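We emphasize that the prediction below concerns an isolated chain of 766 residues; any contacts that depend on oligomerization or on bound cofactors are therefore not represented. The input was used exactly as deposited, without trimming of termini.
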Amino acid sequence: MKELLLGLRLLLGSGRGNRVRFLLMTVGSAIGVCCLAVVLAIPGILSAQDARKAAREPDCSNGRGGCPSSARKTPGLALTRLDPYGSEPLTRIFVAQTGGPIAPPPGLPQLPGPGQVFVSPRLHEMMGRDPGLAQLVPGKEVGLISAQGLAQPDELYAYVGARPDQLKGGGHLSEFGGKWARFPTVEPSTLDILRFTLAGVVLLPLAVFLSVCARLSAASRMRRLAALRLLGLSRKGTQRVNAAETVAAALLGAVLGLGAYWVVNQLVARTGLPGFKWYPADGALSGTALLVCLVGCPALAWFVGRVGAKKAAADPLAVRRSAVEKPPRLWGLLPLVPGLGIVIGYCVAGATGNVPTDTSFSAILMPLAVVLVGTGLVLSLPILSRALARTVARATSSLSLGLAMRRNEVEPGGALRVATGLVLLVYAASLTQGVLIELDQVSKNTSPVQPYSMALDDVPRHKERALTEVPGVRSHMIEAPSWTDADSEDQTSISAVIATCGQLRGMASGVENCVEGRPARLLVSGHVYDEASEPGSSFPFRLRDAEGKRRVVKVRVPLQTIKYHDDTAAQMVGNGAVLIPPSYFPAGFRPEERATLRLLSSSAPQTVRSVLEGIAGVDPTIEVETDGVDAAALQQITVIKTLLGVGMVLGLIIGVAAYLVAATDRAVERRPQVTALSLLGARPRTLRAVQVAQVVLPLVVGLVLAVVTGKMAESSYLVTGGGAVFWDGAGLPLLVASALGVVVVAALGALPLVGRRIDPELIRRD
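Result of the prediction step, given as a token string:
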């Protein structure tokens, strides 16, 4: 306790310079804790949103989960429809009461009756601007969904009251609420990607930054601690004195950082981020997060303080006499070597086509490799800086460069302590780019056309005609497989496309040799041919009319062929499918089993929105699959990209803050050496060149290493991600430009390190 009190007394009574250092440590710790709190709050925000989603889930809808409406008598029916509205999902819950009362979901005073709707506030605003939305949510608006029933303020959500006969495809409904959300804000697998990336982008640079803040004015502090050691203070006591200063700054900074996070959360939650909003209460930190900030950061400062004072406690005379530091040992390369080994192994596997299939093993090995490489970057930079400094100092004849390199040779970690945050920022930027590339490979429509698929069983004949006449629909066709006997060993089947040549040409840009009224096989170049579609083979198709009458028509695979190619990413029809003219079947009869009605329109967002509204105008309960567009997945991608953007901003703040704090501290620490050189006749221009060279040359080495290892880590991550892209050269110019920008910033920041005043007193002052 005496040593701790002594540390606090030295903190308050050792001059203005020490108080400035304490202020820098406190501010740096506050910035670091605020950034850490942001990262720790993200899982809590997502968890709170998913909890509200789970609380409003119907216990069964869409007939899924083995509980269709006919399974048992229940108080009601429910049907969930999730449709894309631009790049956002629009969720509609159709409900119908058939018996006793049902408790309403959170956010509603009561369930809507037939012809009534409850909508979210943002959907209410959009319905005022887009009248076509009324077809998706038909009925009279009787109220708004409160915050308890919404995952986030901007959600597009609606409860639509309906009659029981309108929800024949729905599931039973007895209550709302489930153990988990059917459509979580971020899927668990994607959330793992987010955690992995934020750990590399934010947490690794943050640990370095907090360590830098805890070791400000290291040289002068070591001399003061060495004096205390020579006066009789024990080794452990000396370490505790130093730790008391760092812990006091870290604890005060942690409190200020948590206060800053509260302000940031209140402001940003109300304004929102692109594609991602939350309620301020969701951003409240959990007890574990508060414990990490209030205890973990001071604990890190305590550890760094004790390690930093180890040399002064062990050899105080060498510290007081400014003995030459021992060169950094090669053990600093230890994390880098295995990390690069793993990364290179994955890169070689991707280049040779031997992509790893054990994703569970890669999910552990890949993050480990990224952390090892990032840690190795930090620990190996002093070793590489000293080797570079010795080589350049021996070869150069420039006074400025020689002075700079000799200083870096003696103190290899000094200049790099200033630039480590910037090096890690470039490394993390490359890794984040790889994550964004993988996310961009998620299924989404990039073709000029947009197909729509509906189960033909859900579309009566009169509605089928109305759907094909929806404004914006170019063409349509029916796709159906041939009938197979479930009890037979032979399950061979072919796919049939029921359309005229005119309809087929409307669906595809490339149709050759099509003769109206004649069946033919469709040949799609570049796709695997269906072996069952052999000319002369016969397959039965079961048909049914509107009155329930059934027929079986056998279709023989013809010799004639049609070259087919449409504009979708994955062709809508299979290679070897048989084109059957509608006139081939008896009038009024359609395929009975697993048939699909396909519509086609332009992929322009306004057209897609108009077509979906038109389909809802025919029947709002029809389940429409927008092939190539997954609304829930696209929203998740938007959220992930936004959070990654937040991580990059935090990484930038941490990197710049680390640079500013360390540069300011270095300016104070270097004043005696700069003064001595000035008194020896060195001109200010020479001194500025020395300072710039001391920072820029080792920084360039670090950035080159960061770019190379970052691109390798990015490629290895893409190899393990299971996507189609392994190597990305498009982002390299941006990465190199960012690295050059970092060098320019560091060079400009090194210029003020040389003061204008010469104070000889600094030479003999401790």
